[in-house]
Amino acid sequence: MFKGAIPKLTLSRAALGALLLLVAGASPGCGWLRVAAAGAGTARRFLPGQVVWRVGTSRKVVALTVDDGPDPKYTPSVLRIAQERKVKLTFFLLGREVEKHADLVRQEISQGHAVGNHGWDHRLLTDRDERESMFQIQRCQDAIEKACKVHTDLFRPPKGVWDSETSVSAESMGYRMVLWTTTLEHRTARTSQEMADRVISRVSPGTIILAHDGEPKPPIDRRRTIAALPLLIDGLRKKGYEFVTVPELLELSR
Fold it and tell me: Which one, 20, 107, 158, 240, has the greatest CB density within 10 A?
């Protein structure tokens, strides 16, 4: 507790932007924040609320998001499960995989799912300068538009790792940066049932769930994830939850 008068604190716009990034980065489920030096203009265009990891709503809705695809080994199974259970997903796509498997992206769109930009090749944008980051994002967007004539304004940084420059790059290109509240894959969940149960116990209205249908290098076996998806969907439905896409979820916040 402070004694006496609390001193007035004055922050520059850049410092305030960096502070906002720190607050957002400390919030649950938002991925990993790497704080860049708060030099002039570092966070000059950052706006509170630009980074989303959940949406405040009283309606029992969740958004199930799927990263790192499309992948012919796993994406068809995810699409089949979604179609059988009549749920809409949001796929955050890697540009290099879109270029190789455009037919799967078109299938995602034709089934009513939403898509987002996940960068070109899953390498961290925090290891690049602003110009290189924008190139990675734009290259992925170009691949998506070529595959299915769709423009997305959703962006999720590779591995959820971001800093002020990542936010600036995404915002300047017209993207809303979307992270997540909880993850289906987790080191403490050894079986598909444990994976599903862990998420079900943590969900509340407006939750964004992260799952994966791709295997970035080194390859990752996603079979447990595929088996967990029906368990997760059925379990949340029993609790009265509805599945919506991220764009639909963001509309509820307005």
Answer: 158
Q: What CATH number is given to the structural domain containing 203? A: 3.20.20.370
Residue 219 pLDDT grade (very low, low, confident, very high; cuts 50, 70, 90): confident
Determine which one of 122, 163, 212, 213 is catalytic.
Answer: 212
Check pLDDT > 90 for residue 217.
Answer: no
In a domain, residue 24? The reply is no
What is the mean pLDDT of the segment spanning 162-189?
92
As a whole number of angstroms, the distance between CA 76 and CA 193 comes to 21
Q: Residue 225 in 3-state DSSP?
A: helix
Residue 16 included in any domain: no
Question: Whole domain around residue 66: which residue ranges?
Answer: 49-252
> What pLDDT is stored for residue 164 in this prediction?
82
SS (H, E, C) 150-172: CCCCEECCHHHEECHHHHHHHHH
Supply the DSSP string of 36-100, one letter for each residue.
PP--TTTTTT--TT-EESB---SS-EEEEEEEEE--TTTHHHHHHHHHHHT---EEEE-HHHHHH
Q: Which helix (H) or strand (E) holds 133?
A: helix 130-148
**Domains: count for the chain:** 1
Neighbours of 173 (CB within 10 A): 15
Q: Does 113 qualify as catalytic in the annotation?
A: no
Instruction: Give pLDDT, residue 31.
Output: 54
Residue 216 inside a domain? The answer is: yes
Instruction: Assess whether 118 carries a catalytic annotation.
Output: no
Is there a domain that residue 8 lies in? Answer: no
Q: Which of 67, 68, 71, 163 is catalytic?
A: 67
The answer, yes or no, to whether residue 165 has pLDDT greater than 90, is no
pTM: 0.83
How many helices (H) does the chain have, and how many strands (E)?
9, 11
pLDDT exceeds cutoff 50 at 43 = no
